[in-house]
């Protein structure tokens, strides 16, 4: 699953999650194939014409490596890059702003190992979105909240 698929899954999830609101809008979406830099996804949910929630998400696709040790090393590097992108977006910390990392569901165990004992990420309440392809061939995601990630 590539980064663009992961982003598509998160967009679909956030649209569904916020369907009860007045509106939901993707404010910015990067495309890996275009070489876009910075945060991958910025979205907003609206209530009564005012932004009620903001979502900032950094996405990573499945890592391709020759062997397992190389994959672990690459994953740690990619994860650190994702965290730095999220932290650079943290111009405000509020209950109305959600920051997260999106990865393929197959990378869940590796990511949780890096996140579960990290007190800084816990304090910042970084979410984890796990992207997958559903039975209809659509990309979707599920969300792990801080209570499901951090020890």
Q: Could you name the key traits of this structure?
A:
5 helices; alpha/beta; 151 residues; six-stranded mixed β-sheet; 30% strand; Trna Endonuclease, Chain: A, domain 1
Q: What does this protein look like?
A:
This protein is of the alpha/beta class. It has a single domain (3-145), classed as Trna Endonuclease, Chain: A, domain 1 (3-Layer(aba) Sandwich), CATH 3.40.1350. Helix content is 36%, strand content 30%. The protein has five helices and six strands, in the order H-E-E-E-H-E-H-H-E-E-H. The protein has helices at residues 3-17, 68-89, 108-115, 119-124, 146-149; strands at residues 23-29, 41-47, 50-59, 97-104, 127-133, 139-144. A six-stranded mixed sheet has the order 1-2-3-4-5-6, sandwiched between helices.
Describe, in short, the structure shown.
The protein is an alpha/beta fold and 151 residues long. The protein is 36% helix and 30% strand. The chain has a single domain (3-145), classed as Trna Endonuclease, Chain: A, domain 1 (3-Layer(aba) Sandwich), CATH 3.40.1350.
